[in-house]
Amino acid sequence: MKFFEFVLKFLRRRNSLGYRAETAAAKFLKKEKKFKILQRNYRHKHLETDIICFDKFSNSIVFVEVKCRPYYAKVRGYYSATSKKKTENLRKCAKEFLRENRAFNQNFRFSVVEVIHNEKGEFTDISLYETR
């Protein structure tokens, strides 16, 4: 019974709006920005980073938070997407990823991909907000 519950949970997750937004964001980063996707949904303890990718043009690892918002959302952009607590958790998660992969001297940065959807759940816009 537990295995069956796991499979159902997995299938529900794959069809969720958030999962589809993360998939669309990964495709956007790969196709439009020419980033190499290193890992999705990286976890360390209770912390998670949605997408970790490599930007060959800046020779940097990019830790990406994906935010899915309806088209009528009043708040948009990088600063509305990340609270102080979320930013601190992203930093901790990034530090652990770099430690695990022995990438101590590697350049890195944090970015947010915002995926906008309409009332049908179709994605209408994807934007990248980068930090330097």
UniProtKB/TrEMBL annotation:
Gene3D superfamilies: 3.40.1350.10. Signal peptide: none annotated. SUPFAM superfamilies: Restriction endonuclease-like. It holds the Pfam family UPF0102. PANTHER family: UPF0102 PROTEIN YRAN (PTHR34039). Belongs to the UPF0102 family. This is YraN family protein. It comes from Intestinicryptomonas porci.
